[in-house]
Amino acid sequence: MSNWNEWRAQVDLDDYEARWQQMADDGANPHGEADLIDRFTPSSVLDAGCGTGRVGIELARRGINVVGTDLDADMLAYARSKAPQIDWIQADLVDLDLGRVFDVVALAGNVIPYVEPRDRPAAVTGAARHVAIGGHLIAGFTLRADWFPLADYDQWCTEAGLQLVAHHATWAAYDYTDGDYDDGDYVVAVHRRP
């Protein structure tokens, strides 16, 4: 997890949290991920790689049953301090097994790219095993040459029993294949369990 460790070593959690509040104070919407997830009208969401809980807390505020998981104990402690009523579980996606499924499993914020390269397919499988029949796995991540091609991610989802629904260029659901975005460096991939 060298990329994760490098990122995490540079990030002060108070500053990280303040960034989202500043966005709201400036009149921007800091809840694009929650807005897109909410379009699927889930009654339950697994916020996998939940970090400090921003997405999961917003979804819970909207009346959705949320469970958050992350490997980073400090980020989970931050999430717990903000929303102790939500189940926050320290776990690795590779061997994650909560014994239940969810309408949506969300991987917001470069979750899979920060997994060790050899473990990425297993991490996708770990997330996918929690997607209910008819449910969705929704992942947003930066496309970087030193991470993995989008086609690899789609293949890992297929191998985990999911079908591609859409690639969006943003959490606002702009079509990734639109001429304005098909060469973009970010994707929100939506897959469904049939």
Q: Could you walk me through the main structural features you see in this protein, from its secondary elements to its overall organization?
A:
This protein has 194 residues and is α/β, with parallel strands linked by helices. The chain has seven helices and seven strands, in the order H-H-H-E-H-E-H-E-E-H-E-H-E-E. Strands 3-2-1-4-5-7-6 form a seven-stranded mixed beta sheet. Helix 6 links the parallel strand 4 and strand 5. Helix 6 packs across helix 7. The longest helix is centred in the first third of the chain and has 13 residues.
Number of helical regions:
7
- Biggest sheet strand order reads 3-2-1-4-5-7-6
pLDDT averaged residue by residue: 90
The H/E string reads: HHHEHEHEEHEHEE
Strand content: 15-25%
- How many strands, which pairing sense, and closed or not: the largest β-sheet? 7 strands, mixed
Please tell me what the overall shape is.
globular
Q: Low-confidence runs (pLDDT<50, min 5 residues)?
A: none
Query: What is the CA-atom radius of gyration, in angstroms?
Result: 16 Å
Number of strands: 7
- Distance from N terminus to C terminus (CA atoms, Å) equals 32 Å
Q: What structural category characterises the helix and strand content?
A: alpha/beta
Which percent range fits the helix content?
A: 25-40%
